Amino acid sequence: MAWSRYQLGLAALMLLTGSINTLAAKWADNFSSVGCGGTEEHGFQHPFLQAVGMFLGELSCLGVFYLLVWRDGRRAEPTMSPAQPFSPLLFLPPALCDMTGTSIMYVALNMTSASSFQMLRGSVIIFTGLLSVAFLGRRLEPSQWLGILVTMVGLVVVGLADLHPSQHHSHNLSQVITGDLLIIMAQVVVAIQMVLEEKFVYKHDVHPLRAVGMEGFFGFTILALLLVPMYYIPAGSFSGNPRRMLEDALDAFCQVGHRPLIALALLGNISSISFFNFAGISVTKEISATTRMVLDSLRTLVIWAVSLALGWENFHGLEILGFGILLLGAALYNGLHRALLGHLPWGQPRGEVAEQEGLLEGDSRAINSES
After folding, report:
1. Using CA atoms, how far apart are residues 363 and 347, in angstroms rounded to an integer?
2. What is the pTM of this model?
3. Of 17, 212, 226, 290, which has the maximum CB count within 10 A?
4. How far is C-alpha 1 from the geometric centre of its chain's CA atoms?
5. pLDDT (tens digit, 9 = 90+) per residue, 153-181?
6. pLDDT tens readout for residues 222-279
7. Which long-range contacts (CB under 8 A, 24 or more apart) does 157-163 make?
């Protein structure tokens, strides 16, 4: 079936804003500027402040949600179902996971390349699958177990590519290894967040934009308050600011004042996350969850290509191989192979085709099929 212009626009918006989100964060990390009190020029390494900005972008999804509610209420026949009553505190546990995982990932992005960052995030499939079996009582299909195994192989290949000495311009090997491990650790937290959302949030039939906005509200409020004690917590060499504290928000604002382009990078990161969430949810609704997964994989390819074009990293063949293996793992886990086999009438008995169609159209879906 041919896509409409609206569907094409949604797909393009998701691909564009998703790519900008990671690239803008890495662009900000690449800046150097003097800080407060005339301190010497140093890199813009403020991962926790950047995480606050990301949650501000998620919080803006609440505004989009209420705008949609207002627009729907003006129709003669409203299409949005009335929300079920629920406690806003329902979103606090997943928001805490989101806050932790996002902060760890922004720290890791300071240590490794944007493409490796995006590729290694694919490891969330492994932990989501295992936790869904342990805590949700899910029964994964053989193809999903195979997808998890293939993803593990892909992670090893991407990790080997990162060990190549010419792969990174501004990071030493120990930083790269630490960054890669932090990204994978963060995916454990992200997987816990997904399981919590599925177990406690989705049963209340909360609109996705409202759910993202509520988690953004909690994440923004809590992490913004935590910036105050972080200003006084020593972090030694782990910190990138002159005072060697866990986070120095004042230093960040001084750097932005001296290099206004940093503000543009931060604004790109904040605005892109809200548009990306809206476009992703709309693609799932208007097209399919499988299309969303494919677009998310293409986003990794765009980030890698742009990073090469800008000279942020060097080409390495292993990274291409690793990306291909990770893409195969994600396709197997999310059931994309069934859709592809459905277009091949040869090689499958009619009974098997019907059985696969039943699986695709049934109520049982793989966890994380819409992320």
Report:
1. 27
2. 0.85
3. 212
4. 29
5. 999 999 888 887 655 556 778 888 999 99
6. 999 999 999 999 998 888 889 999 999 999 999 999 999 999 999 999 999 989 988 8
7. 157/318, 157/321, 157/322, 157/325, 158/116, 158/119, 158/120, 158/318, 158/319, 158/322, 158/323, 158/326, 159/120, 160/318, 160/322, 161/116, 161/316, 161/318, 161/319, 161/322, 162/112, 162/113, 162/116
